Amino acid sequence: KKTKKYIMGQDDMDIVETEQVASENLDNEKVLAKYRLASEVANRTIQMLMKELAPNKNVLELCKLGDSFIEKNLKKRYKKSHKGVGFPTCINVNETVCHYSPRNGDQLVLKLNDVVRIDVGVHIDGFIAVAGHTVVMTKETITGEPANALAAAECGLQVAIRLMKPGKKNTDVSRALALVAENYGVNLCEGVLSHQLNRYVIDGSQSIILKPTHEQQVKEFTFKEGEVYSIDVVVSTGPGKLRQTQPTTYIYK
Questions:
Q1: Confidence tier at 252 by pLDDT (50, 70, 90)
Q2: For a tag site, which of 3, 44, 108, 147 has the least CB within 10 Å?
Q3: pTM above the 0.70 mark?
Q4: CA 118 to CA 67: how far, in whole Å?
Q5: In angstroms, what CA-CA distances link 55 with 58, 59, 91, 109, 118?
């Protein structure tokens, strides 16, 4: 939009045309509607993939299925907008925590009792929604430490959601998550960040660190109304120290 701005000069009033930039935060109803639809599609994609998980299913084909499902669900919506996959569908198995979206020819298949983490991302005009879910491929009741880890991750997510409101700080969230992990007898994983989402930016400058250490810290900030964040909660029955196990890069930025 263009608006007219009136500036009082020494002798008369000058009229200057200025550009009015629409907000890209949630106070803009059009932006909010795009975030909502992207979130709905991301959640539907997770639900669809959960039903597809089975022994001998090829991980590459599952990733392709997730991406194509996103494209199909957005095809008839916002026809003039740039839209689609906001982050490649990833199927992460067992010790692989994230970012496993393999290239053509990959032969990895799922097995009974695998722990599978699904990650998807959807965007409409650059407004991104991401979603993730963990599935244990068993018909048996999950008990003991594995059950504690799953419960801690879910509880931590809900605690983070309730704390992330205007006036609270990112450090408040980190401290609360540490208490959740302690109560469940599991460890938060180091090196995991929950980022602010901006238009076309999936890893904004403001972030919440899951497990602060002497070497890994982030700048403290206060949440403001209208901001958007993804939340990553990764817990382990082990020490929670992540490491790169293979040199192959699957996700490019």
A1: confident
A2: 3
A3: yes
A4: 12
A5: 9, 10, 14, 7, 15
